[in-house]
């Protein structure tokens, strides 16, 4: 059983979520944004005041809606985690690569973890997206594959 958090200590949990070097987004079943952490604000240039309560597809029309809806619905229906790796889909949200000097890539490569969030009654009503910047990993793997003549995975 998880440890109980005293409500008066809840603020430090929020601080952790805000300061993590990964994106944290919580969506309801209608894909409305409920949580948008500092990583997301920094890379999208959209603060929580501009995104909270808004539909993710309205904010980012370039998202493949069919794919994301299917992924999220499966997570909520089964109540299990799911993943998306940059090798399958380079990114969920096209953020610019923020390493202008060492960055050889035009955009941020992302891995995404989809976590079902259950109510007290046990029904999954929200999904948490954890977005990891894996641009350096992608860059190095692509460089290694190029130097091996494309035979790296064989």
UniProtKB/TrEMBL annotation:
Source organism, top-level taxon: Bacteria
Q: Which Pfam families match?
A: PAS_4
**Residue span(s) of domain PAS:** 11-77
> What CDD domains does this protein map onto?
PAS
Swiss-Prot/TrEMBL keywords: Kinase, Transferase
Matches recorded under SMART domains: PAS
| Keyword Oxidoreductase applies | no
Q: Which residues form the signal peptide?
A: none
Species the sequence originates in: Metapseudomonas boanensis
- List the protein's name: PAS domain-containing protein
